[in-house]
Amino acid sequence: MTSSPSSTTERLTALLAHAREHVPFYDGRIPLGDDPYHVLTALAPLDRKTVRAAGHRLHALDGSTQGWRSTHTSGTTGEPLTVVFDHPPQELEFTLLTRHADRLGVPKGAGIVHLTLHAPGPSQAMAAPWGDGRRLSKWNLARVWQCPDPEFRRAIRRLDGKVLTGKPAVLELLAARADAAPAGVIVSGETLDARARAIIGAGLHCPVSSLYTLAEVGMAGSECPDGGYHLEPESVYGEIVDGEVVLTPLTNRAMPLLRYRTGDQARWLPADCGCPHPGPRLELTSIRSPRHLLTTSGQPVELSRFLETLGALPVRRLALSAEGPGRVRMDYSADAPLTPADQERAARPLRAALGLTAEVRFAQHKGPHWPASDGQPTNPPQSEVGLDLPADDVAAWLADWFTERELRPEAVALTGSVLTPQARTRFSPVDVTVISPAAPDEWVDVVRALRRDLPALRVHVVDAPSGLAACRLSAEGRVVLGRLPEIAWPTQAALAAEGRAWCRQAADTLWDRLTGPPIPPADTLRTAYMAQHLSVTACRYLHLASGWRETGADAVLAAELDPEEGATVFEAVAVAREHRPPPPEPDAGRGYLREAMRLVGMVAAVL
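The chain above was modelled as a monomer; its predicted structure follows.
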């Protein structure tokens, strides 16, 4: 087993050999030579256009792709660029982040929470791969952001004592809304100006520092107390060519970018800053400017002004572009067009900032076809429900869909979390019940067509609903089309019998998952959803078989679970809904499953 290169020269030499041998794009382009710096500078720098055109030819052909992670440059600043990373640069990024936190004086072992406010990205968690006890969680605030202020502030208290990372715009919004006490804030991804630094520091009552990062490269440098950024010699080799920062990431073998033009302007600073950081120091003199829209009078307005509002739209990706003063085009990727209500919600803050006569034009891109790189989609579709998919819009869409096709089932009704937004997760389906005398197999093609237009649907076709389905239609069903027939409420004995059979199946499902392969911390969110879904259903059977007629998730859990004894279930519910960050402990997901299995067994015994 060979050791990893320890110096920048060794790392660069190994990277050039790897790219020469295994990356099709560099075939015949990298000359031979003993001096890796001379070999590197003989290559023409890469720009975004070249990388986008090269596509998969920049991917290495050797080794396993398991664990590769795709990163996209921001969809809100134009056409995104996709770069893939293997494990070493991901691990190194966390090492450098915690090292910078140490320089800030953050206590050893303090958790690190990366905050985002962008609908598509799921919350995730991981333990530090180098095993020093550090923990990292990524918390997408987009769902908890929609909670009332008191509930939101209670959730945010979980950030006390943590190191927070994220874009300045996200931390600035957080500082304006919540009173938290983190140990420190380290921002990246955008410029941290003096105004934002002051707002974040005053609002969150902690030291604020910044990193020099790029989505295409990873962590390139860290802020020096005397000004500027020290480049991280373990991570990148840096040049300044005609005033522009040109970086070569040293550890990413999945997609080597040799001499990548960042678009950032900089100058070197003297190394005698008194700081113990070993990397060369530079000062950014101008950077890739934030994208701007134009007011009706031609004044620029930064896109980050609209982060909070646009982050809640039910889309996978969006891009705003100025088509002239007071004219905006919004491209978005989604399976269904934005409703008039969502379009108005998106346009209102734009008009307020750009002028009341500002025009907003919407362009939908379906499926995975926008954008694309080398013929491959760069943003594959995910099975997730929009953050704020209003029940009114879903109901109207379903009614129109059936009416346009002259389909006349006896009734179409909605149940589930689409009717209670606070209970949604990104894995929650939109439950639709179609009541029809026709056999379910006669509806197969219709339901497939229906789900092509809105994949998040889960469609049940029944003649006469019974058991739990009958209870839910009676207690919470919202009729979209037609009229519900008379539904007989099942007897308690019938519900108990159905519940016992369901519990046996749920226990088998949980046992299979518990005894399967280890659950990566990154899958904690999905595991929490599975545990909370089965726990809620078990509590529904217990509640209904006891004679109650409430089926809503929160009401049933509150009635059937003691807050202390059911603490793990309530935690799984909050994590699944992303109302709290997922715990990064490796066994957290198994803990949720074990508690769900215990609850299912208890319910089966009682029933």
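The chain has 17 helices and 25 strands.
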